[in-house]
Every structure is written in C-alpha cells, then in structure tokens.
Amino acid sequence: MNKELLDKVNKRRTFAIISHPDAGKTTITEQMLLLGGVIRSAGTVKARKTGNYATSDWMEIEKKRGISVTSSVMQFEYQGKRINILDTPGHQDFSEDTYRTLMAVDAAVMVIDSARGIEPQTKKLFKVVRQRGIPVFTFMNKLDRDGREPLDLVAELEEVLGIEGVAMNWPIGIGQSLLGLYDLANQRRVELYHPEEGKDRFIALADGKAPAGSPLADDPQFEETLGEIELLEGAGASFDRAKVLAGQQTPVFFGSALTNFGVETFLEQFVDLAPAPGEHKVNGDEELKPDDDEFSGFIFKIQANMNPQHRDRIAFVRVCSGEFSKGLDVTLARTGKQVRLNNAVEFESSARVQVSEAVAGDIVGLYDTGNFQIGDSIYAGKRKLEFPPLPEFTPELFMRVSPKNVMKQKSFHKGMNQLVQEGAVQLYRNYQTDDYILGAVGQLQFEVFQYRMKNEYNSEVEITSIGHRVARWINPDQLDPKMSSSRNLLVKDRFGNPLFLFENAFAERWFHDKYPDVELTEKL
Q: Where are any strands of DSSP class E within 243-283?
C-alpha cells in the first residue's frame, strides 16, 4: 500500500449532477463553484439579457439556448477535499454523453424540481446510476417557488425510483411562505431563508424549540413543521451510511439553487458522506486499487474546439490508479502505441490550469492530435490494463449531409471528422454513392452539429432527414449489395463495416424472411 498516494486519493470527491432539463442542475453547479471560490458571481442560465451565462456552459450554442448540450468538468478545493464535478446535459437527445460521464464518477447528485417531482429523464438517468451501484444524493430544488408537499416528494423516491429517501433537512414553509430549513442531521439547527441584516442565518434550537425572541418563536408554521418532523422521525427511514454507499438509500436535501439557499449545507455534508475513489474492474474481472503505484485511466469524452481560437481537441481521462505527472509515458491499450503526456490541463470554471499532479478520481484534459478515441484505456506500467467498454447508443434518427459550398471541402471534412470523433453523432457513407449520412439519438444533436460546423469550421451544411431507421450490421462475408433497396439502405460506418438502415421493423422482418441465413446485429 502506498500510504502517501492513498491519503491524496481519499481527499478526492468525483461526482456527476443529473436531472431532467430545467430542474436547476447547472445553477447548483455554479453555486458550488462560487462556494469553492473559483468564480465571483454565478451567472444564471436565464439571465441572457445581462450577458451572464452559466460558467459550465462554455459552448456558444449553450449560451444562446440557455441549456447544457455537453458535459462540463470543473475542479475546486473545499474543506480540505479536492472536488471533481461533472455537469451533464439534461436533455434526452444528449443521453449518450451523460451515460459515458456516469462511468467516470464515484457518486451522483440528483436534482429534482420540487414542483414537478421526478420527471422522465431523471428516471432514465437514475436507472444508469443504479446499474453502476453508485451512491446518489438528492437535492429537492426550487423551494422558493410553490411546489409539492415535502412528504410526497420523499415518498415518490421509493414509489417511482425504488430507492429509500432519508431527509437530512426539512423545509419550514414553501414558496412565498418559506421561512427556512430545519437541519435534521446537524445539531438540530434552523437555517433561515431571509435572516435579519447583520444576524447569523443559523438559529440553534433548544430541545427542538426556537429560542425566545427568535423569528421562529411562536410561529404557527414552525409549529406545523415540528409536527411533520415528529411524523418523519416516527415513520421515516433512518440514515444508514452503508445503505447510501451501496446505492440503496439516498440522503435528501431541500433548498433553492437560484437563491443559493441550502446549497452550502448540502455541499458540507456531501463531501463528508460521499465516497472517495474506489476500485475499478480491469482486464475482465480483476480489481484495480486506486493506490496502485502504476498510473492508469480511461478516456470517457473527447471535445473539439473548447477554445475556438486555437482549434484544440481535448480528451478527458478519468484517472483510476497511480499518479499523473507532466511528461509521463503511457501505453494506449487499443494500439500498443507509446504516448508522452506533455500537455494536460484541469478546469477551474472556464479557466484552464496546467496539471502538476493528478491521482485516482481526478479528471484530466489531454491535448490530443488524434491519438485517442472514446473508451480508450491508457496505462504507464508494463502490465497491460484495459477498462470495460463504455456504453454506445445505436442511432435512431438519420440525415443526409452535404456542404453548401463545394469549394470548402477541406473545412467540411475536417469538421465532420472532428465532431464525429466526439461520439455524439455517428457517420456513415452510402455503400454505392459514398454520400455522407449522419445518425444520432435525438434531433437536437443535428442542430448542434449544423451550428458548430458553421461557427467552428466555417462550413455551412445542408441536412436532409431520412427519418427514423433501424440500424443493423451485417457480416461482410454474407453481404450482396443487391440486398439493398429503398426500404433497407446499405451504408458503411466510419470503420468501413457494412450495415443496413431499415425503414422500420416490418422492413427488417421482410429482410429476415427473404434471407433467413443472414445474421444481422444491433452492434458490432
């Protein structure tokens, strides 16, 4: 055991924030960055007229639309811990990016709109979190607006998601009548929503009662809250850390990210309760310890043009073991090729900082000239280490794409190549004509692609829908190009593998009936 390395690892907290769109996920990320001292003011996503934008939304289209369309990575120090926070897109069209990001974290923070409760995208993302068995912490947001009863919100966690919710604090009122939060986990104190000027925002309680002369003394709403808490303590779940770490119980916090109410209390308890980086599976079923001396990690995201002026490309690596240092020589498991890691950065808000060291749990951005692909494993020792493959989505929507200006073929091909390598859209070519076809899991991906081609590569593109299709790969040895028709378009993926894009399930069944010996697969 490397005790010095293990001490560093134990100070890391690496987590993703997940939610349905507009539940406040990016806003709570901003408030955490504010508390970590890496930004001076949180620019709310809504405040487009002020020119303030969410710090984690670096892409121009995100600033215009007011949504996150790609995962962001940010680091900061808080209470002696090194925080790696990944803000993910909430929109379902960007699920693939979010799913991969969830492979690179040790915990998840689930943000729920207290007026709407659990929404469809939250359910989908929670399912991935559950499959990984990682701890999930819940923040019931927008308490400053009228919403649902807190007891109903906690009950819904078990009814809809099948996870036990245990309240860590409890609202005193809601919306316009919000007075504060009763802290169940921290010495029975109340955090006031609007403390009097110059007064402490916390009120210490004596035997659960508000002291005389305090804003809560003899307040009927506070008395009503005490009754709810009594009910909660009698019938509700008790906090069980082992259950939390096993992903069977979620600590529930209430607050308002927009007004930065309850966020600090949440972050204080989260860094204490969330797990440090743990073991990872490698080479099938081997367990790799985070304090293993040899450096290793995997690429879970590639992003082009994070700085459009420099046309850079960054591969994000989750460090899983050992220690990174500048100039480290690693082996790329897929090719066996040696790569020297001379230029690596981490992200503090929108600023980049050269990495001096990184250990298990840290997320490092590697400047990349095209060596890396999503899912790549890298390692520094003689023993080959390969991490499990990352999830891949088979596209369902397809578009023909061509440059508007045929004289700008160079920028068109460069943009196509770089954006496809990010993994959000898949590239295919017609088997006979070589025309370009793009596939994606959602319509918004095409809009982002078209926008970025124009703004980052100065290449306007025409995209024409060919609708929903069912993609199925075929063994080249069984392929006869005459099998293709208008109902099952024959294309090849970017690695040259042939596949059919069937018009619908009926067309696929018709093909099976006509060619019963031909094997088709959903993925290679």
A: 249-254, 280-282
